[in-house]
Amino acid sequence: MQRRNSVVTIFALSMLTSILHTQSAISPRVLSLSAYAPSVRDVRGFTINSAGLVYVRDWDFQAVTYRSLHSSTNGLVFHGFSLAKRFLEQHAVAVQYAPGTVLEFSYPPQIIGNNLGSDETTVLYDEPASLAYAFLPVNQFSVGLSGSLQREIVKEQVIRTGTEKLFEEDVHRGQTWHLDLGMLWSKSEDLSFSLVGRDLFQIAGSELPEEYDTLRLSAHRALEAGASYRILPRLAGNISISSRWIGGIGLEWSPIKSLSLAAGVYYDRNQSPSFAAFSAGVGWSYDVFEIEASFLRFVNQNNRGGQIPARGFNPSSIRNISLNPYTTDRLSVGLKVIFGNVRESLVRIESATMLGGIYPSSYEAFAYKPIGTVRVKNISSKPVQAKASFFIDRFMDAPTESQPVYLSPGEEKEISLNAVFNETVRRVPSSLVREGNVYVNATPAEDYDDRMQTKVLIYGKNAWDGDVLSLRYFITPDDPIVLRYSRDVLLEQSSAIMENEVENLYRAKVLFDTFSGKLVYVGDPRQSTDFVQYPSETLSSRSGDCDDMTVAFSSLLSSIGMSTALVDVVPPDHPERSHIYLLFDTGIDPKYGELVSTNPKRYVVRRNPHGNETIWIPVETTVIMKGFEEAWTKGAQEYFDDVEIGLGLVKGWVKIVDVN
């Protein structure tokens, strides 16, 4: 213990300390731009802000070397490599090995006498490894967690002189993981913001003995905010500042697509002058390769020349092993390579819009009518044909692809999205929101160029959008319950039906009277006009409202081969009186109209689905409890008032929609 204390004393009183500085294995582009946190989009600088890793294309690799301009070390020194991988679209990980991230201080031997030895002490700080994980929880916003291993190593070497030399060495180690939390918000293509909590947590692996407390590195918690803005199409600016008043300002200019020039200024209020360093860099890219170089120059050269007085050394001033009051000027060179899925994107998604929710009753219609639109932009230098695909997990078996559209370079267009749903969507009991995936690709690309998620509202299976065209999707004549019901009813009356001159009309009357005798007309079960029961539910519950009864009776008639149509009435002066009733086809030629009724106002002559003019009977299901004759009479009166007198069909406030 006494000898160790003497070493610390020698450390404190020594007149000269030789020093070797290296930098972290980060991109020269990071050094040249200074305020890089809001611009992280790949493996470069992920230790600055790990949240940017989610924008790695697939695999990213970088190796960096440097030369310190005021060190006794000659030549280039390899100081590390970084590797990043994106997976599952929204996740990314990275690792950095940096054997060159080192600060080493050597204290010269103390000559005490001819036969007495001398003590030499070396203090080494390094950051050999870093890890990071990033996640994109929502579009344009990502978070990341990174950790760097910092080590403190003290070596004492005792040299004895005399008849023989004897070397003794004691090594003491301390190591700690320092964790940062980063966030990145890409508000638009031209503007992004970063927020990083530096050194928020520490995980200690081992510590130096107490007698070396003065040599330990301290935790320096700080909150850093940054922003990046594209001032002109080829000129971008960055700025950052931390709660410890450390930051930077940088500009990057791309005179041509493959060439970039950058310059930055480092600010540190704790140093003199506050604008502590200047940087400049150049980058050149070709295909999947990028070569870059940077130069870093400090304004105040005190303690940066390779040797410093021991009394000028203060470990607590080292907030970053890479950049600190003892870092020397340096020249850095790096190589970055991307591999894996390295195809250049041709188009980009600008926005995606859903046109409304999905009503399970009419889910089949979305195979033909748009469910939404996506706006895409050609970001390549050549014309392309772009396609969009839409997919919702569980409710679709595969993505549904749109027709291709032609895009000139830089052009934007909207592409309609369609969706082929499976039967699962019909079993949604209540409304829910799911993620809809929108993909775009362009020839000659084989994979999608961009992807976006958008919220999709899927209504419950009984929800109805109020459109009469959608109501027909609730009519299910092939439902086994409907088929069994109509078959059983008609079998009981088969003799009477066969003897009747107007067989279809009589079959409809029998079905209606039997149907109405077992049902109760009530208001909407959900107290809402957008809830419709399927026929099987109406038959099971024996109750329903106007829409439910209309749908159920239409299904029963359709199940025995009779054509039906829905009459939608929306009076322009009284929209609150809107209602729907039914027409069904008797199949009788108009010249035999007297067999149906001597009053021609009680029936409608119109073309059936086969193109033949036949007699149709209007039925108002709201009076179902009063029987077929009353429902027919009221339906005929309504049709005469709305269509014949009010000219509803001509004026457009009455619609007739054929069901089959």
Describe the protein.
With 660 residues, this protein is of the alpha+beta class. It has three domains: 338 residues, Beta Barrel (Porin), CATH 2.40.160; 112 residues, Immunoglobulins (Immunoglobulin-like); 191 residues, C8orf32 fold (Roll). 15% of the residues lie in helices and 42% in strands. The protein is built from ten helices and 32 strands. The strands form five sheets. It has a 14-stranded antiparallel β-barrel. Strands 20, 21, 22, 24 and 25 form a five-stranded antiparallel beta sheet that branches. A five-stranded antiparallel beta sheet has the order 30-31-29-28-32. Strand 11 and strand 12 form a beta hairpin. Helix 4 crosses helix 8. The longest helix is centred in the last third of the chain and has 18 residues. The chain is elongated.
